[in-house]
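Hey, I was hoping to borrow your eyes for a little while. I've dropped the whole record in just underneath, so have a look:

——
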Amino acid sequence: MTARRATLPLLVLAVLVAGATVTALAAVWTGTAPWQAAVRHPDAGPSLPAPVPGPAGTGVAATGVDGTGVDGSVSAPSGTGTPTGAASLVTATVAPGAEDTAVAHPTAATDWVVAVSDATGIPAVAMQAYADATLAVAATQPGCHLGWSTLAAIGGIESGHGTHAGSALQADGHPEPPVIGPPLDGTPGTRAMRATAAGTAEHGDPVWEHAVGPMQFLPDTWRRWGADGDRDGTADPHDIADAALAAARYLCAGGARDLSTGEGWWSAVRSYNHDDAYVARVLQLADAYTDAAQQVP
């Protein structure tokens, strides 16, 4: 085989290589072709520093609601820290599964959280939420393989980790003032969604729906995927610990996705926002967080 390849005209080889390169680049750029195993993405392989669990005995039970059939809506691409509205129009309310209340998971060690927060610039409160949510789904949905950097990238793009438009993330995990997305009123880049009573109670607009909180959930989406990540007895989309766990479960789709594969990762993130440019930005930011965290001893 080697001898035959060596006899091909150089021009033919150049054409073949160029064509393959263009095809591969087009597939990755558009996201329309199946990913190849060799394509780097944040949740694949050992390159992602995993959260370090805290001391034994500090774990809490993962909670929330289970379900499959995730269906994200189209929302406008935006700059980092600008809410986009990660909306799925799923209205079914599903009771917590036995695996969610029966499995204890550790929280991330404080020193690890602080070190990665310093390295990445992610607020420590947000970093704790992303790491704890990752450990939670690793315990309840071990086949998902969600990495913290993917959650962090989505949180960074959706709300700047709870700091959009001058909000400040408080020690209790709530942005002040609350992060409220733009009205979904049918203007270019948004779909028209009339407000529900539950939505109005969250964002105050009686006419149009808004996504809310650090991870930008719509009320109907929250009804299905809402979670109590910090175990304070309330599932609150404005609480970054709750929102991060809900987002983690949404991405894992009740165990239906494996984010260690390129196709699974792309499908999961695209379900959050049906826009390939958005997915590419999540990939870029997640990789940047991963690279920064590699410097942590």
